[in-house]
Amino acid sequence: xxxxxxxxxxxxxxxxxxxxxxxxxxxxxxxxxxxxxxxxxxxxxxxxxxxxxxxxxxxxxxxxxxxxxxxxxxxxxxxxxxxxxxxxxxxxxxxxxxxxxxxxxxxxxxxxxxxxxxxxxxxxxxxxxxxxxxxxxxxxxxxxxxxxxxxxxxxxxxxxxxxxxxxxxxxxxxxxxxxxxxxxxxxxxxxxxxxxxxxxxx
Length: 202
Hints:
Elements: H1 2-28, H2 32-36, H3 38-51, H4 55-71, E1 75-76, E2 79-80, H5 81-93, H6 112-121, H7 136-150, H8 159-164, H9 170-201
Antiparallel strand pairs: 1-2
């Protein structure tokens, strides 16, 4: 009788030890440094706030995505992202009267810079000579409508909001302008590729 009891105890101890060892092995596989990393914890809190509907966090996440996929890869003569896009705009609009692009907020309020960008690449779409600096809402709406109809660039901004705001939202303007860069710069690259192909074939 004593032998049976001792065997049962030995079996139970062995089972418990093997179960515990398996559990501890699994726990040891965890990345403890990651779990204790303040940056990781902060990211988890941000994720929770986005799920809970925190508007500021959601907009921040959207801007991060836009920056990564629409603006960060822009490169113009050793300048990239925001600076590269600004340089591109300055060069394209330089010949146009009443246009002086220095930033991504006030410089775009009267709508002439947007119309100049369109006219520079597609002069058939806008008669720039008929535009007036004292009609910012008309200029902006013209640019928005032409861009949406002929360039497949969706209307992301509101003309009245831009005009009535002392300093329009820089991120919103930059995002919208980056669409023109990708539309026109991409077309220019295609033309260069075609010309190169023709030269090689000749």
